[in-house]
Specification:
By secondary structure, the protein is an alpha/beta fold. Bound molecules: fructose -6-phosphate.
Length: 607
């Protein structure tokens, strides 16, 4: 969602803030702003649009050695310069940036207006500036603590005051915040990408903590003013991994990276001799794993679809009942937590609020939740009872791609481990490992078809609506393919079970509505071919995504994309890649902003 950054140090704060905001832009990009302090006054620049618009509005060499900045994903109040952060109090001395939602802002605002405060924006966030003003009696940290004690909702807040040179106060509840320790300078931001160019030494904060920082030192206290000891962590990502390199877009780079990100998710986690997986991070003994009777996977968006693939497999291979549920639904339906159920939370960012809140609810009820995250040190990773990092490297395109296959990889290893502990014999375990290890090479062969996929995108990008259809393990992949097309090309797309279309969606079929079928190479193939014929009989254009050499599917379809032959259980890894490429190329044809699609943001830290 919104990205926030603060800086205290010897350099020109505006340059550091603008560079940091550029790296945070993937979190939200409808407007942005900075406030820098100089000679007991604040200079504030705010602009609707991308960071480059803000950059043009900030004069070259503007003075100021400390400051805060924000890139916005609007929740309350339209997208314009005034609603952009930072927001000021009535005196113009206090500036705040806020990531999250203040749920009780209406009551607070009414009270503040009654007391004589003048509001400029329509945001929920502006109340924070006026509350700090109300409480301020010379101690900024105390004023921030009094302020946050009144807030309901989620926040990551940065506050500065023109009379307190070189001081920033940060507070968090439900929104991420991390401090970067430089040499004679300090950074604070909503994620490490904003500071990785300057430091790799970081401190993560927990909810209820308040940090006070200047260029030389920081201190952390809780709401009752008790000091909190913090551990310094190191960021494992390299700056180069955050660059686009020779690719025109991050999305394309990340799709191609799957040939290396999948092996990274497997690295050090396979025991070839025993034909099983080694997942120490689960923090569970073999006895405890043997006691697992059910698995529930919770996640959102693309991560949810990855979870759905794995739930199929857990049942079929490990014979453990498994379901995948939307985190946002789990949290509010008063879930029943029973002994013997193991929970997984899947999240690329590790910050998705719906998922985080569901984890907390499950843990409150005694559930053991394991996190499958990409971002090391993220809130979900820290709050889970154990877990596995997928080590995909930074995923910067808003549309998730490589995280999907890496999440599946990590959980396929869990399936292997559970299956081997139950009834999967050594040779089958061996075959499973070989199959998984062969996936990256097969994906690299799919890239040879990229020109062909581009041609199909040219042919079909004007369609107003699409159906993506699959069955079994490929049903969630169809859902993911539809999500990708919606997100980056803004084409309406429905993902469905190929079997389900006759129960309703077939009414949508006409000559202008293409159906993309994922044709498996398994016991469901003939059924899917019949479903394709049902669409053809109604003059619907059909694209088949089938295994190389599938003559029947090729004959029925108008157009075809191929994936290399594999064991059926690995088909989802392969079938998702052409769908990612298809969505990407349709988006390019339509001139979309591929990496930062409209209305979206990476890391959804509001409910
Ligand atoms: C889709 C996409 C979103 C995320 C979802 C969950 O391309 O990016 O649907 O998958 O917001 O995010 P994480 O995995 O970070 O919890």
């Amino acid at each position: 969602m919104c990205g926030i950054i603060g800086y205290c140090g010897p350099r020109a704060a505006s340059d550091v803030l603008l560079d940091g905001l550029k790296r945070l832009e993937y979190r939200g990009y409808d407007s942005a702003g900075i406030s820098v302090g100089h000679n007991s006054s604040l200079k504030v620049f705010k602009k609707e649009g991308k960071i480059r618009v803000l950059r043009d509005a900030v004069p070259e060499g503007v003075d100021g050695q400390w400051g805060i900045g924000h890139t916005r994903w609007a929740t309350h109040g339209g997208v314009n310069d005034i609603n952009a952060h930072p927001h000021l109090d009535c005196t113009g001395k206090i500036a705040i940036c806020h990531n999250g939602i203040i749920e009780n802002y209406i009551a607070l605002k009414e009270k503040l207006i009654d007391e004589g405060h003048a509001f400029k924006s329509d945001t929920d966030s502006e109340v924070i500036a006026h509350l700090v003003e109300t409480f301020y009696e010379g101690d900024l940290e105390a004023a921030v603590k009094s302020t946050v004690s009144l807030l309901k909702g989620t926040y990551g807040i940065l506050v500065m005051h023109s009379d307190h040179q070189d001081l920033i106060i940060g507070a968090r509840n439900g929104s991420p915040m991390v401090l970067g320790l430089g040499d004679g300078e300090m950074f604070i931001a909503s994620d490490v990408s904003a500071m990785i160019a300057h430091t790799k030494q970081v401190v993560y904060f927990e909810d209820g903590e308040v940090v006070r920082l200047d260029r030389h030192a920081y201190s952390v206290t809780d709401m009752r003013n008790r000091p909190v000891d913090k551990k310094v962590d190191s960021i494992s990502w390299e700056l180069e991994e955050m660059e686009k390199g020779d690719y025109p877009f991050y999305m394309l780079k990340e799709i191609h990276e799957q040939v290396v990100s999948i092996p990274r998710a497997m690295s050090g986690r396979i025991d070839e001799d025993q034909a099983t997986a080694v997942l120490g991070g689960l923090n569970m003994s073999e006895m405890e794993l043997l006691g697992v009777k059910r698995v529930m996977i919770i996640a959102a968006g693309t991560s949810y679809y990855a979870g759905r693939v794995v739930a199929y497999l857990l049942e079929s291979l490990a014979r453990i009942p498994a379901v995948t549920e939307l985190a946002s639904e789990v949290r509010y339906r008063n879930p029943i937590v029973e002994e013997g159920t193991l929970y997984f939370a899947l999240s690329q960012s590790g910050e998705t609020l719906d998922t985080l809140m569901a984890i907390r609810e499950l843990q409150r009820k005694g559930g053991r939740v394991l996190g499958i995250c990409n971002v090391v040190g993220s809130t979900i990773a820290r709050e889970s009872n154990g877990g596995v990092y997928i080590h995909s490297g930074p995923e910067i395109a808003v549309a998730s791609t490589k995280a999907f296959t890496s999440q599946m990889t990590a959980l396929y290893l869990f399936v292997l481990k559970m299956a081997r502990m139950r009834h999967m014999a050594w040779p089958e375990g061996k075959k499973f490992i070989e199959g998984l290890q062969s996936v990256p090479e097969k994906i690299s062969r799919i890239f040879e078809q990229e020109d062909h996929i581009k041609t199909l995108a040219k042919k079909y990008h004007e369609a107003e609506s699409f159906l993506f259809l699959g069955r079994g393990l490929n049903y969630p992949v169809a859902l993911e393919g539809a999500l990708k097309l919606k997100e980056v090309a803004y084409i309406h797309a429905e993902g469905y079970s190929a079997a389900e279309i006759k129960h309703g969606p077939i009414a949508l079929i006409n000559e202008e509505t293409p159906s993309l079928f994922i044709v498996p190479d398994d016991h469901l193939r003939d059924k899917v071919l019949s479903n394709m014929k049902e669409i053809k009989a109604r003059k619907g254009p059909v694209i088949a995504l089938c295994v190389e050499g599938d003559k029947d599917a090729t004959d029925i379809a108008d157009d075809v994309m191929y994936v290399p032959k594999s064991e059926e259980i690995f088909h989802p890894f392969l079938s998702v890649v052409p769908l990612q490429l298809f969505a990407y190329h349709c988006a390019l044809e339509l001139g979309r902003d591929v990496d930062q699609p409209r209305n979206l943001a990476k890391s959804v830290t509001v409910e």
